Amino acid sequence: MALVGKTAVVTGAAMGIGRALAEILLENGAKVALLDINEAAAERPLQALEQHFGAEKTIFLKCDVESEEQIRAAFKKTVEIFGGIDILCNNAGVLNETSWEKTISINLMGVIRGTYVALEQMNQLSGGRGGVIINMASMAGIGPLLSCPSYTASKFGVVGFTRAMAAASEASGYGIRFNAVCPGFVQTDLITNIPVRLGQFSNLAAATHKLVDVMGTIAVSDVAAAALELLIDDTKNGEALLVLQSGATYMQFPTFNPTQNKPL
Ligand SMILES: NC(=O)C1=CN([C@@H]2O[C@H](COP(=O)(O)OP(=O)(O)OC[C@H]3O[C@@H](n4cnc5c(N)ncnc54)[C@H](O)[C@@H]3O)[C@@H](O)[C@H]2O)C=CC1
Ligand SMILES: CC/C=C\CC(=O)/C=C/C=C\C=C\C=C\[C@@H](O)[C@@H](O)C/C=C\CCC(=O)O
Hints:
Elements: E1 7-11, H1 16-27, E2 31-36, H2 39-53, E3 58-62, H3 68-82, E4 87-90, H4 100-107, H5 109-122, E5 131-136, H6 149-172, E6 176-183, H7 194-197, H8 205-215, H9 220-232, E7 240-244, E8 247-250, E9 256-257, E10 262-263
Parallel strand pairs: 1-2, 1-4, 2-3, 4-5, 5-6, 6-7
Antiparallel strand pairs: 7-8, 9-10
Helix pairs in contact: 1-9, 3-5, 4-6
């Protein structure tokens, strides 16, 4: 799908990976609605994006992905201003093992809420234009991160939800592709103050820092570049793209033959 003239919604767009996603979408000619709970944090990045790409190409909408009402209002405003939605990047997420409910509500349920509200606008079966939805998972959605069990659960859920939605969409004719991005450690605020973020698992902070040292970190631009391939390539549906310092790799998952109930 060519991005020129398309409309994208990015959640958690005020900083980090979400801001990088917004930038690469704008660089490729899309209009972008930047959604975030943190309006103050979005102010300066938005000014910079407006100066570079033009104010007519971007809007910021305050939105808490824990609220279906706020998501629906933001999507409605986006359609009013830009005429429709072609792309959704469910990116907002937190790392907070002290409050596992919050982690699940934002990281997993926020992706599900955003997807289901977006279907009301994007699904070709209900008059939408179709398009593509990218869900920001993590390498911790491919393999468990011992110091972050609830975060890991949220990201495994994002990968599973994405792959199931991709299959449902293809079988039903939604005209929407669904793909997950699974980065390793990325240089953002989310991986600062790790011990505080680990809550009852803070005893595993040293092991986590060691993993960061061994695996290294990547830049937000590396994640955005990997996501771009999933946005543009119309053959990509149901993928989980692992993004590490060594590059991006499409994960292979076992397929089961229900009649034999064992991996093929
Ligand atoms: N930083 C990393 O190492 C990795 C991050 N990820 C994922 O990437 C996504 C983005 O994370 P980062 O850019 O690293 O973090 P970040 O902390 O830099 O940015 C997260 C953004 O989401 C926003 N946000 C938080 N809760 C929200 C809510 N309820 N509603 C709306 N917006 C909300 C924040 O205000 C912030 O602007 C997250 O889903 C995270 O789990 C995945 C793999 C690695
Ligand atoms: C402390 C920072 C936490 C959250 C940010 C985030 O999402 C970073 C995740 C980065 C790495 C996660 C690594 C998990 C590693 C273990 O699960 C190992 O079992 C390896 C996992 C998968 C290997 C993938 C493959 O098959 O090659």
